[in-house]
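ping. complex inputs:
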Amino acid sequence: MEVNIQGAPILFTIPVLGGIPITSTLVVTWAIMALLTGLSIFLTRGLKVKNISKRQAIAEYLVATAEKFVHGNMGEKWDRYVPLVSALFALSIVSSLSSLVGVYAPTADVNTELAWAILVFVLITYTKIRTNGPLGYAKGFTEPIFILTPFNIISELATPISMAFRHFGNIVSGYVISTLVYAALAAANRALFGLLPGAVGQILAQIPFLDVGVPAILSLYFDWFSSFMQAFIFSMLTMMYIASAAESD
Amino acid sequence: MLERALILMGCAIGAGLALIAGIGPGIGEGYAVGKTCEAIGRQPEAKSDLTSTMLLGCAIAETTGIYGFVTGLLLIFVAPGLFLGML
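pong. complex structure:
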């Protein structure tokens, strides 16, 4: 019985600078970005003020939801973060759900989340420097006393790492557990139908009947619920960290 | 041969120990959910707010468990190759 759990497969290698490996993460992420961009262009074509089409109604509903989400968590003055947060949310949820069509989900690769988390970290630092000034930002590390500076730096750096690993761990644990359950059910199936005598048992044991249905329940939790939850939490934390960075202390 | 066996054994035991980290989030999230149920019982009209706050809190409480899980994954899939390569 072969159980195969591995990272993102390398599709091809660009032969410059000693070979740059192109993993399926990169390819799928670009495909998802193209999909989302295409969807946005499709939804917002031919906007009208009166007699709006169904397409425009969907677009307006999505934009209104995103704005309500950001306003509810950050306040009215953070309008310019609506595109960022909704883009992160959409990218995250579509990436996680892409495992449903059989590709290796980009969010099951830690590089994806680390890239997003570093982006958020840069924004947090930018907001802090903007609020308190460069000196105030540097001075913030020595609060409440000077000796705690290394710990403050560590806790500052822990923010993006914990954000990235939270998302990554949830998605990849779903992947690992579903793979194991598939393999276990196939093995149980082989043991069960192998009990039948003769060639019938041999043939039936090769067809994994037990793999039908049962993993779908797991998929409901690990793929649908977990993907939505992690996208929600990632964008929520993004908003909360940025909003709290703007409070001058 | 003995070194290889020792390395693999250490990685396997370490992965098992790392997964003990799952206890904490389990207890913590159960406590959070229980408290949320109490709060909903007291104020059913605040259900949607309470639920979203609870889910966010649960996800943050889960972080330590996720750290344990990632450590376990590293010990199973990365560390044996790394340490065996050092020999």
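Residues 10-245 of chain A form one domain.
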